[in-house]
């Protein structure tokens, strides 16, 4: 029972301690998730502790940025309502519940309504934890670009969660090229989009380990747009999977996915078909290009792509 009575961060608010406890107690009731035993087995018996982080952003002005461990106190009401409730759902499966109970670091960003940021918010932290978690909340009508190039150095099994909540009519561009150094990693980039919002994702991955990427958005209303450029390069001896899913409804609501993949063999890169989960059918489409192992990966990406030149040459 020790796990039920210990917070991970110092001065952790009561609501978060209770939420962690609930996730631990109810976890066995939830559905199993893909390959969850690899992560849960790795964490079993480990003492939960805060990860060490350098390079997290702190800012208080036209937007707010804080380490998540600080924001759970200073933006307590906002995070109590939204942490793993609207984008990554802690009750969706046993691995998600375990992740909530063990979140040990991460970044919080809040962009108020009607804010237009002309320069990207740059995130380049180094984090040692097993369960880092980002929460980005963008208010109605705002425009923001967030670029993340994190170094995740834990040698074991890492679940890195990023939740992005996009307000009505807002436009968010999120670019991520994170590096994992451990045995295996799950990178979730999950989004909630209010009506009329637009979300543009540029996602790249080339870590020399086994990485599963989970992409998800709930598009809540008409004229809501999700587009993603995904570039996946699998080094020799590694394995990657990509699982893209959308949900939602609304006239004129669309999802578009463009994937570039490169691996030594097709088995090294598993690309799930882009699909709609539960709910009404959506207008979605995908274009997938598998590149030859000896091709110049960077050269084949679109000229204007943020991901271009981020990959090592074969």
Question: What brief labels describe this structure?
Answer:
6 helices; seven-stranded parallel beta sheet; ten-stranded mixed beta sheet; 314 residues; alpha/beta; globular
Break the fold down into its secondary structure elements and pairings.
Layout: H1 14-26, H2 36-43, E1 53-54, E2 59-60, E3 64-67, H3 68-74, H4 76-82, H5 94-102, E4 107-111, E5 121-123, E6 126-127, E7 133-138, E8 143-148, E9 151-152, E10 157-166, E11 171-177, E12 179-180, E13 184-194, E14 198-205, E15 210-220, E16 225-233, E17 239-249, E18 254-262, E19 269-271, E20 275-276, E21 283-291, H6 297-300
Parallel strand pairs: 4-7, 5-8, 6-9, 7-10, 8-11, 9-12, 10-13, 11-14, 13-15, 14-16, 15-17, 16-18, 17-19, 17-20, 18-21
Antiparallel strand pairs: 1-6, 2-3, 3-4
């Amino acid at each position: 029972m020790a796990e039920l009575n210990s917070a991970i961060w110092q001065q952790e608010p009561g609501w978060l301690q209770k939420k962690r406890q609930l996730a631990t107690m109810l976890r066995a009731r939830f559905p199993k998730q893909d390959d969850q035993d690899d992560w849960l087995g790795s964490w079993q018996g480990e003492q939960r502790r805060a990860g060490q982080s350098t390079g997290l952003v702190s800012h208080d002005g036209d937007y707010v940025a804080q380490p998540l461990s600080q924001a759970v106190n200073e933006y307590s009401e906002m995070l109590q309502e939204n942490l793993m409730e609207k984008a990554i759902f802690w009750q969706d499966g046993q691995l998600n519940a375990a992740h909530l109970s063990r979140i040990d670091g991460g970044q919080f960003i809040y962009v108020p309504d009607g804010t237009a940021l002309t320069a990207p918010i740059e995130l380049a932290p180094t984090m040692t934890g097993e369960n880092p978690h980002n929460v980005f909340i963008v208010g109605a009508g705002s425009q923001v670009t967030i670029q993340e190039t994190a170094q995740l150095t834990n040698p074991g099994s890492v679940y890195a969660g990023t939740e992005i909540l996009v307000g009505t009519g807002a436009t968010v561009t999120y670019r991520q090229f994170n590096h994992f150094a451990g045995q295996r990693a799950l990178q979730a980039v999950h989004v909630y989009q209010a009506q009329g919002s637009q979300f543009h994702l540029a996602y790249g991955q080339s870590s020399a380990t086994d990485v599963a990427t989970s992409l998800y958005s709930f598009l809540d209303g008409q004229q809501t747009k999700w587009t993603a450029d995904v570039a996946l390069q699998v080094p020799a001896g590694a394995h990657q999977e990509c699982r893209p899913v959308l949900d939602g409804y609304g006239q004129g609501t669309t999802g578009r996915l463009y994937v570039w993949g490169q691996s030594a063999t097709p088995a090294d890169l598993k690309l799930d078909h882009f699909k709609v989960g539960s709910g009404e059918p959506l207008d979605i489409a995908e274009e997938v290009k598998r590149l030859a192992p000896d091709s110049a990966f960077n050269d084949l990406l679109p000229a204007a792509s943020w991901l271009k030149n981020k990959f090592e040459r074969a």
